[in-house]
Amino acid sequence: LPWPLAAGDWSEAEAELGRRGLQADLLWVMGVDALRAAKRAGVQGAATVVDMDLESLKLARMLAADAPANPVRRWIARVDVDRWRRLERQAAASGAVVSLCSSAERDAFGGIAWVVDNSYPDPGPPPAGLRVGPPILLLVGSLAYQPNSDGLAWLLDGVWPTIRAARPEAELRLVGRGLAAAHPAHSAPGVTVLEDVADVTPELWRATVAVVPVLWGAGTRVKIIEAFAHHVPVVSTTVGAEGLAVEPGRHLLIADTPREFAAACLSALADPATASRLADEGYGLFRQQYEESVVTHGLTELVRQMLAEPRDQPGEQV
Whose CA, among 49, 103, 192, 208, lies 20 to 30 Å from 34? Predict the structure, then answer.
């Protein structure tokens, strides 16, 4: 097993499932570890869907972008890439329908899979008068998650000083848990860390620009869909926007070096007309493809078809 799964303990869940003796028309599991646990517990499904991230792809990209300095950890990670790939293939070979969040992941997977977009409920129009005062750059996400923490370090070291030099009144707000008490973000000029936010909507409505400094990873970033839903213009890296049906320059701005990323943020701050156009185009794409009811409807139809007429070709993009 890959290292993260080897330490997992599903015994309590397996015991509970075993006591219930479940026979299901549809077995839907989140991840290959949950699939393994359900099968060990004897759960039987006439149809099975496994909704998963491509952990093999994520880990391979981490090794390419930020390989551990410790040679043992680096070796374990390389071995785990192959272990994850084997488990992902086994899930598909077991007869389960694999559900992924982008066509790019399906291409990387190399097998038949559903593509079910990540989604977000429409929060409605932002209240008038919130986006006044000094500009706010907003980063939302779990800051203990390594792609986010690596991206934050890149932002603080190479991007934020340039923005502060040009716009000293600007504020960078970090919304998410996981930063250590000694993390430099807590003492960086113009940076505010908000770990316990019950509702992120007010933060998004106040934001001038949402930043997505993701340097490696897999899947698609809900933080971009979330910003689109709240009419916030987005500046992202190429990796951050991967898998989403976005056009750079139309729906968001893309930049991959610290200098370019800072320039893109400053451009959005300096040109309200361009920022408004990006926000409108992003919201339009959100309503068309990523709004919760749109994705739910397409997924419901796929499941109905699968249950009514089991077939070898699970389906195309939702």
Answer: 103
pTM of this structure: 0.90
pLDDT in tens, 112-143: 899 999 999 999 988 887 777 899 999 999 99
Question: How far, in Å, CA of 277 to CA of 261, rounded?
Answer: 19
For 37-78, write each residue's pLDDT tens digit: 998 999 988 899 999 989 999 999 999 988 889 999 999 999
Whole-number Å distance between alpha carbons of 303 and 192: 44
Are residues 247 and 227 in contact, defined by beta-carbon separation less than 8 angstroms? no
Rounded CA Rg of the chain:
21
Residue type for 27, please?
L
- The residue among 136, 143, 261 whose CA lies nearest residue 192 is 136
Give burial (CB, 10 Å; 0-12/13-18/19+) of 296.
Answer: middle
